[in-house]
Structures are given as structure tokens and as C-alpha cells.
Amino acid sequence: MDLFWQQLLNGLSTGSVYTLVALGLTLVFGVLHIPNFAHGAFYMLGAYVALTVMTLFGIPYWLAMFLSILVIAALAVLTDRLVYHPLRNATPLQH
Known about the structure:
Elements lengths: L1 H31 L6 H19 L3 H28 L7
């Protein structure tokens, strides 16, 4: 029975991650009307930043998650300004 509860929690956590990725893609496409194919790369980079911070600097897990969020948010703002901002006023042919 313990294995059942563990697998149930594993499935719920995996499904939650998939749901967050799908909601992020839907939100970005719904607002900007531009598909963001780098969305998964941001999630992957966030995981690598957290792993690197925890491994190299010995920072606790929750603090590493918070730092990862800050780093990826800064990268997302930079990407928005350099890539998506010029596309907002572009003609549909230029998308």
C-alpha cells in the first residue's frame, strides 16, 4: 500500500509540472499571439541553475529554488525585450 501512495504522489507531482508548462505556453500565446518555443528551455535552465547553485555553493534546496526563479525571470525579461518586443508591432508576415 505504501508503494501505491508513493506512485500517486509521483503522478500528481509530474502532472502538476506538465500543467504548469502547458498553462505557461497557453498564457504566453494567448497574450502575445506569438508561440514561444523556448518555453521548455526556460524550465530546463531553471532546473540547472538550481542544481548548480545547490552543488557548487551548498545552498539549501528552497533558497536555490528562489534564486533559480529570480535568474530565469531576469532571463525571460531580457528575452522579452530583445525578441518579443520588436515582434509585437510587426506585421503578421514578419512573425
